[in-house]
Amino acid sequence: MPVVSAPGKMILLGEHAVVFGKPAIAIGIDMRMTCTVVEAGQNMVNGHPLDDRYHSYLATAIKEYWVGEPLDITLESDIPSGSGLGSSAALVVSLLGAMAVMRGGIDEEAIAKAAFDVESTVQGRASPLDTSTSAHGQGVFIDSVPGDQLLWHVEKDSRQWYVHHCAVPDLTFVVGFTGIRAPTGPLVAKVKRFFDRTRFARDIIDEIGTITEDGAKCLQNRDTVSLGELMTRDHNLLTILGVSSPELQRLVDASMPYSYGAKLTGAGGGGSMIALTDNPEKVAEVISRRGGIPYVVRTDVDGVREE
Fold first, then answer.
1. What is the pLDDT of residues 192-203, one digit of tens each?
2. Structural domain for 201, as ranges
3. Which of 9, 141, 199, 303 could tie 133 with a disulfide, CB 3.0–4.6 Å?
4. How do the residues of the chain divide into helix, strand and coil, expressed in percent and rounded to 5?
5. Are 87 and 80 in contact (CB under 8 A)?
């Protein structure tokens, strides 16, 4: 009876710019999805029959990657759904990991690529950033060209990504969840329209790409102060692109006096922000006071693993 877990993630730098071929950095966090699997008479999820529509990620993973008896799946999650912290990626990665254990062992690269395929099937269009981060843990630097510490190369249709290991020190972040679930698609489309129409937007995308590259160096050098400054610059640029919201801005502004830096994470429009801080209790307090739901998270975590 395999028990396998996979971490959630947060995008540290590069969201939206990654759509235009710029790099992005995502970090595994110490919120995990745990999946226990046993063969059974029919496919079940937490005591209920698997529903292809309601359990679309699980159903797709089983259909595409499992050959054997039906599975009785038990899920336990620390990751709030709809928060932008990678709950769907961790769900798919942990299930694929449990399947892999039943067949002999975990292969990070194979699981990352299979999980990306599942997310692409369910969502219609996806990036391998979330699933690679959940499979690998630590940090992931994704780019349109190969570089040092390359983990794997992912191709889909005419698109391709090079996924690299990104060393991440033990850092403390506070996530502030607005409670608003904003769909990613319209926000990505909004930025693309801006990008297509104006040189100004294209310059912003280029600057976010440069910030992300500088951020990777800060992580390598353990330069927390400079990393925080880059986070705040990135947030300001994303705000100019129109993907922040009043709710996110309130949480970012409240966190700044007690943080090295703060920014929205993910698509924006709602979802979550993150603050890099040595004073997580105070940041969590001010986020809560401004109407957000705070989570104190740590980095330097394992990827998919058998428990």
1. 899 999 999 999
2. 172-298
3. 9
4. 45, 25, 30
5. yes
Which position among 130, 148, 203, 300 bears the catalytic label? Answer: 130
Cα–Cα nearest to 33, from 135, 141, 114, 129: 135
Report strand pairing: 48-49 vs 44-45.
antiparallel
Strand, coil or helix: 175: strand
Mapped onto helix, strand or coil, the DSSP state of residue 279 is coil
Q: pTM score, two decimals?
A: 0.92
What does the alpha-carbon distance between residue 196 and residue 246 come to, in Å, rounded to a whole number? 26
Q: Find the angle CA(162)-CA(151)-CA(24) to the nearest 5 degrees.
A: 45
The residue type of 243 is: V
Q: Is 128 helix (H, G, I), strand (E, B) or coil?
A: coil
- Domain assignment present for residue 307? The answer is no
Question: Any catalytic annotation for residue 214?
Answer: no
**pLDDT 10s digits, 112-143:** 999 999 988 888 767 899 999 999 999 999 99
Please report how the helices 224-240 and 199-221 are oriented relative to each other, as an axis angle in degrees rounded to 10: 160
How many residues in the chain?
307
Q: Is 74 among the domain residues?
A: yes
- Asked whether residue 288 is assigned to any structural domain, the reply reads yes
